[in-house]
Hints:
Blueprint: H1 2-26, E1 49-52, E2 55-58, E3 63-65, E4 68-69, E5 72-82, E6 85-94, H2 96-100, H3 110-119, E7 124-131, E8 135-136, H4 137-148, H5 155-170, E9 174-175, E10 180-186, E11 191-195, E12 198-203, H6 207-215, H7 222-232, H8 242-250, E13 257-258, E14 261-262, H9 285-310, H10 312-315, H11 319-324, H12 326-331, H13 333-350, H14 363-373, H15 376-389, E15 394-401, E16 406-413, E17 423-430, H16 437-440, H17 444-455, H18 458-469, H19 475-484, H20 486-507
Antiparallel strand pairs: 1-2, 2-3, 4-5, 5-6, 6-7, 7-10, 8-9, 10-11, 11-12, 13-14, 15-16, 15-17
Helix pairs in contact: 1-20, 3-6, 4-5, 9-13, 15-17
Amino acid sequence: MAVKRTRRAAASLSMALLGLYCFSFSSSHPAMVDAADPNIVGKNNHKFWSLRGGALIDAATKIDFDDNHGGLSLCGVGVRKKGPIKVYSVGMYSDESAKSSIASLPKNKSALTTLRKSLKSSKTTSFLLKMNFKVGAEKMADAIAESVDPRTSDKGAVESLKKLIMDGVAAKGAATPGTILQFDCSSDASVKVSVDGKAVGSAPGLSEPFCDVFLDDNGVSPAFRESVIENCCGVASSSTSSSSTATHSSSSHNPIHIVGSLFYHKLKLPKLPYKYNALQPIISEKTLRAHHLKHNAKYVEAVNEIIGEGGASLKHLSMEQIVKSKALKESNPVLYNNAAQCWNHLFFWRCMSGSGGGGEPKGLLAKTIRQDFGSFDNLRKEMETSSIKAFGSGWTWLGYDKKQKKLVVSTMTGAGNPLIEGIIPILAIDMWEHAYYLDYQDNRKEYINGFFDRLVNWKYAQQNLKHAMGKGFVPETFHHVSHHGLPLVVALFSANMAKKTAVHMLFQQS
């Protein structure tokens, strides 16, 4: 029996590895990416990281990191693997002086040596480890301590760090998916440990070796190092010097994608996920055609024109970086508003279903709505009231506040998007007149009722909520199934079968 179980486990793991390999190969081809999906932003070199909502997102785990944390700026993100298991994603935050030290350097690993020297004089460098896989407190502490240990002679400090991690994680049972371990490397050489925002303590003398765990040539995440290089190097303003311009130009063959299309290849009008007459009688074919082919197209054209005239200073930005940037909203409102409208429409099209839409949500979304609003009827009334009372044109959003860990409703004027406030969009209703006026004139209430009764795509909303909460598959997973076919299906199915076996083999956990 033991032999049979071992064979089954080995077969399961082999299937997982084969499927994941096949998927990684198929997903590395940009032609397979659908520009119509707002969740697919593209991956730098198609393998390391991508951008979504103004934050860097680890392409391997789909875990996102805000641009700023505690006044520090994000340098890069990457996955930490143990065999085929994606254990956690790491993001590093530093002050602007550290980032600027390598901004004009070529995109190669030698820049990391300069960055490591610069970090020694930084007041604080923070590493956020966001868990993607459940790991016990002792195993988590051992794994990090074993990485720090070869990089320092102070074994007592390593033991102190290990105990802090173990105590912090043990307080919540285990490092489960969604858990955030924070390590603040200070100028006094100490490393302060926090778990889910709760301070645990400080280990002395380990600031430099802890940074080296992720930044030296033997760092635990090659993807993280490449992300730092891509995000921080070769980004100095082209106006500073001709050499800076040359540096940026030489790296332009790997620009950041904007929803499946490179900026210098121009953003394209997305295809709708249904036919123009599919939303009738709630939204007429005439309204939808005008909305998509005239208004949405106008925003796309405007973004391409502005980006094309803006030079290198704009071409390295993703649409999501633009949408979340308060500074850009003030300095370049025309670009901001048109880019936000592109994002908003890409999202809105997916919030409606050509068949089977409307009614009440189910599953996790229904449970969360009851928890945060008391009932679905209360949520619907709040969104309806907020939409009707809003002055002028805008958007009504159901979003997830990760800090408060709850759903929130907001109506924002113009091209407003909750991403700029750190809120993750779950569902949207377009309250611009071009979305409903031909069909309803000024009767907003009837338009909103029709949206909830017949159109709203609760499956998509639930997928967005799961992503926001760090649970389940994100929407692009389902998109890729239809485009990549069997390799991804095999990967997902067999990876789930292999999960328990992999835990035993790689972490020796029960």
